[in-house]
Design goal:
Alpha-Beta Plaits, alpha+beta, 273 residues, 17% helix, globular, binds zinc ion, seven-stranded mixed β-sheet, five-stranded mixed β-sheet
Length: 273
Amino acid sequence: MKIWHRITFGKHEGVEHVIDSLGVKITKTPGFDGYYIITFEIDETDPRWPQIAELVRDKQAPDFYNTTFTPQEIYAAEWIRLMPTFEQGYPQPKEGWELATYAHECPQCGAGYRQQAPFHLAKEPRLGRHDFMSFYWAYTVFVTPNVLDVLAAQGIRGYERWDALIHRTGQPSQVVSQLFFPIVAGPGLAEEDKLQPETCAQCGLTKYGYHKRGYMHIKRAALRSDVDVQLTHEWIGSGGHSGFREILISNRLARLILENNWRGVSIKPVELI
Ligand SMILES: [Zn+2]
């Protein structure tokens, strides 16, 4: 596991000589009137990290971070988070897709919904070498016919294949189908991972912050053991007007993703408590 930081400093902060002297490779992006910003990536196991971290605190520099896991760490986990990363297009119609697609979405916090109708695509997507796709705006999973074939052949449980419709014609896409996940786990997110809790005044649901650091922890007793995919009970997305449930997949399904080298998703192991 490595926790990666992408850090940005401005010229005015005068830290470039310090970063240089540490031998960190930087990218310089020019701005107006000789101004520039420097950006670089560093992980927390790097011996230079403590000094960089102190500079970041001192200067309150932008610091975007995330965690990457080794295949061995993923193979060792019973449950793994599946996160769509390849996004293309917007659900249609751009105005009103939520009402057409979701039931019970809270107008205030954007959570609490259940999908009741297929998504509409503006046009057939161009996947390049990707096998998985999601939309901008909607946390959802589309896959190629090849992925569907493998899931069916391997007897993966806990999803339904839903058509994705081309908006203009109403015909199913030939390129992707949606994986719909009907099963929701019991309440199980560990207290330590209930980040930035935000309870909606209108619907009473609590959303939590994006989990980016290390392992997410979930109570084993909350999870179904007879399926390969289930959603968390808890909603994620505090600080914004949308919400989603984390998608949890079994070790068996995670292995299929790694062994087939399927692209378009990121997978992160969960620690059961
Ligand atoms: Zn709400």
